[in-house]
Design a protein that fits this description.
Mean pLDDT: 79
InterPro entries: Cu2_ascorb_mOase-like_C (IPR014784), Cu2_ascorb_mOase_CS-2 (IPR014783), Cu2_ascorb_mOase_N (IPR000323), Cu2_ascorb_mOase_N_sf (IPR036939), Cu2_monoox_C (IPR024548), DBH-like (IPR000945), DOH_DOMON (IPR045266), DOMON_domain (IPR005018)
CATH class of the largest domain: Mainly Beta
GO molecular function: copper ion binding; dopamine beta-monooxygenase activity
Largest sheet: 7 strands, antiparallel
Bound molecules: 2-acetamido-2-deoxy-beta-D-glucopyranose
CATH topology of the largest domain: Immunoglobulin-like
Protein name: DOMON domain-containing protein
Low-confidence stretches: 8-23, 202-218, 222-226, 554-564, 570-604
Strand order of the largest sheet: 12-11-5-6-7-8-38
Number of strands: 39
Cofactor: Cu(2+)
Family: Belongs to the copper type II ascorbate-dependent monooxygenase family.
Number of domains: 3
Radius of gyration: 26 Å
Distance between the termini: 50 Å
Length: 604
């Protein structure tokens, strides 16, 4: 029987009803808890046309509450609001920034607009909005990158900022739809594809491969308490090979047959949640054209070398006989993962490139390749990765930056949808650019499977499917070695030569330039493991245009917010001596009413 796989939101958080919402703020579609103990809950929504983001923060405190953005969990340069309701009912709310790790200052330009502020016996709810870009040097841009959020609260209204509870969370905020907006089929089945009591030995990063099975799936099922160990999970479809191994084996191990299944169909990695495909599409299973077998690959990180770990993680799949219009496919793009990819140590920003040239797709597919409708993607690098971009070119011209995250967080890897489907035609080129930071490393990092090695990949989700599974590029390493003044007469010598380079700012720049201008070999694979290569080169990338700067305080004057106040963390001893209340002057009174809802009636 022909089925398609989807994912279904069966595990909706019931905690949402904990706080009752009020009518003031427009329906905000997205939500997340910002801390593991569920004391701080954020709802948000964005309006691309107006370039504005609306937030509603609920914190389990009747003291001050705070929310904002940081660069990398640092107070210095942080951009946030602090607000609350005084015991006498007066409201305070204003825009702040971090000047140093122990000083925060109220902004001269107030760029956040308060929409409502309410309080009950146990919690405070604060709704406000801000333009994506204010161009105030004390604010940070709200972008489609993985944002570093900061939230906090104090026990009372004395804003001893540094004595409050502060939490940090990485979040991608430009979400497009919630799972309840998607169509769920009336009939579906569930299948758990998982490992059974697999032992994770004490290798630093050990990789285990599991059973070939006849179904797929798409929701992480990480064994409780094993969350920090499971690094990423991939499900590969197997081609037409007649002999497939069964059981569990090491990845990249002795048995080459385990590598036969190379078409990624499902990816999940650290920090990701469940994912449901758009209404038009699902993964086809059960027809003669479909893979009969899949390979489940789980990568573990066991940095603490805990012995005798047992794991039962895997992925839960939801599948249905109510077919969607298109069967989907996954195209694996980026830099070929092997040691020709290298990143020098001690670099603040180093770029690597891998190109896919699709000019041979038609020939390799065995049938005309229909236009590929790209609808989603998953970015993947390891710990040194700081940014990933995927750029589409047609006839030598850049069509679009298909996807980008300039604040990539290794701990938050998830499948994301494109704003609208983007057509990929046979003959197009797709460039993947990865940015790395290696200030904490002393040795060259090479491409490879371990968390301490690096990768530079984008998995593209599209429909209707074709037979191509991967299209990965890598630079001519011999050329690169020669540019770095090393002798190398073939690829192997080129790779060895990289170890001999003396890394300083000059050789690093040379290496980056040489890798970009070197001819690339593009390796294309089909689901039947047919492999072909061709040459290509790296084109320039035109940056995406930033949202315009807008100033909310000019749009909606809020003169009462125009004050300047500073709070400086005081050494613990003097703080005690001073007494909390005297340190911080409370903001002026805005309204006088007890237990109220304050609304600024304005429409965006
Ligand atoms: C497997 O091979 C057969 C013949 O060799 C072919 O007809 C069929 O389409 C192949 N299946 C897939 C999934 O490629
Ligand atoms: C895959 O390849 C086979 C031939 O090997 C071809 O008949 C089939 O149409 C191709 N499938 C798609 C979706 O292009
Ligand atoms: C590169 O230059 C900066 C100063 O401009 C220096 O701090 C850094 O250590 C240099 N890196 C290497 C690898 O020499
Ligand atoms: C690329 O293809 C050519 C000819 O098909 C072959 O000789 C060469 O070894 C291939 N290169 C790689 C890196 O696979
Ligand atoms: C992609 O391949 C085609 C055909 O071989 C070639 O004309 C084109 O220049 C290639 N693109 C790049 C960027 O190398
Ligand atoms: C570190 C840790 O808590 N590991 C647990 C992972 O899950 C298994 C059960 O499958 C437990 O036995 C381990 O203790």
């Amino acid at each position: 029987m022909h089925h398609q796989l989807l994912n279904m939101p069966l595990f909706l958080l019931s905690v949402l009803c904990l706080y009752s919402s009020h009518a003031s703020v427009p329906a905000l579609r997205f939500s997340a808890f910002l801390d593991p103990t569920h004391q701080i809950y954020l709802r948000w929504d964005h309006n691309a046309e107006e370039a504005i983001m609306t937030f509603e923060l609920q914190a389990h405190s009747t003291g001050w509450v705070s929310f904002g953005f940081t660069n990398n969990k640092e107070i210095t340069g942080a951009d946030f609001v602090i607000g609350g309701i005084l015991p006498d009912g007066n409201v305070y709310f204003s825009d702040w920034h971090g000047v140093s790790e122990d000083t925060v200052l109220e902004d001269e330009n107030q760029d956040y607009e308060l929409l409502s502020l309410t309080q009950d016996a146990t919690s405070t709810t604060m709704a406000f909005r801000r333009y994506f870009r204010t161009c105030d040097e004390d604010d940070l841009d709200i972008t489609g990158d993985t944002l570093r959020l900061m939230a906090g609260y104090g026990t009372d209204d004395t804003i001893n900022f540094f004595e409050g509870r502060i939490v940090h969370k990485s979040l991608y905020m430009m979400l497009l739809s919630t799972e309840d907006e998607l169509h769920s089929p009336s009939i579906y089945h569930v299948y758990d594809l998982k490992v059974d009591d697999v032992s994770i030995t004490s290798l630093k990063t050990k990789i285990t491969l599991d059973s070939f099975s006849d179904r797929f799936n798409f929701e992480p099922r990480i064994t409780p308490r094993n969350e920090t160990l499971v690094h990423h999970i991939l499900v590969y479809a197997c081609g037409n090979a007649s002999v497939l191994p069964t059981g569990v084996s090491d990845c990249y191990g002795a048995d080459p047959d385990f590598a036969l299944c190379s078409q990624v169909v499902v990816g999940w990695a650290v920090g990701g949640g469940s994912y449901m495909f758009p209404d038009e599409t699902g993964i086809s299973i059960g027809t003669p054209l479909d893979a009969q077998w899949v390979r489940l690959e789980i990568h573990y990180s066991n940095f603490n070398l805990i012995p005798d770990l047992i794991d039962n993680s895997g992925i839960r799949i939801y599948y249905t006989p109510e077919l969607r219009p298109y069967d989907m496919g996954v195209l694996h793009t980026g830099l070929f993962t092997f040691p020709i990819h290298f990143i020098p140590p001690g670099v603040d920003s180093y770029m690597s490139y891998g190109i896919c040239n699709t000019s041979q797709f038609e020939e390799m597919n065995g049938a005309p390749v229909p236009d590929m409708h790209m609808f989603g993607y998953l970015l993947h690098t390891h710990l040194a990765g700081k940014g990933v971009r995927g750029v589409l070119y047609r006839n030598g011209e850049q069509v679009t930056v298909l996807c980008e995250d300039n604040k990539y967080d290794f701990n938050l890897q998830e499948t994301r949808n494109l704003k609208e489907t983007v057509i990929f035609k046979p003959g197009d080129e797709f460039l993947v650019e990865c940015q790395y930071q290696t200030l904490d490393r002393t040795d060259v990092i090479f491409g490879g499977p371990s968390t301490l090695n690096e990768m530079c990949l984008i998995f593209l989700f599209y429909y209707p499917r074709n037979n191509i599974s991967s299209c990965l590029g890598y630079p001519d390493i011999q050329y690169v070695a020669n540019e770095l003044g090393q002798e190398a007469s073939d690829e192997m010598e080129g790779m060895m030569a990289i170890n001999l380079v003396d890394w300083d700012n000059e050789t690093i720049k040379k290496a980056e330039k040489a890798c970009k201008e070197a001819e690339q070999t593009v390796i294309i694979k089909t689901i039947d493991e047919l492999v072909r290569n061709e040459t290509s080169f790296i084109r320039e990338i035109s940056d995406t245009i930033l949202a315009p700067c807008k100033d909310i305080s000019r749009a909606i004057p809020a003169p009462w917010l125009k004050r300047q106040t500073e709070y400086k963390a005081t050494p613990p001893t003097t703080a005690k001596a001073l007494g909390a209340k005297s340190i911080f002057p409370l903001p002026p009174l805005l309204f006088l009413s007890w237990c109220f809802t304050w609304l600024l009636t304005s429409s965006v």
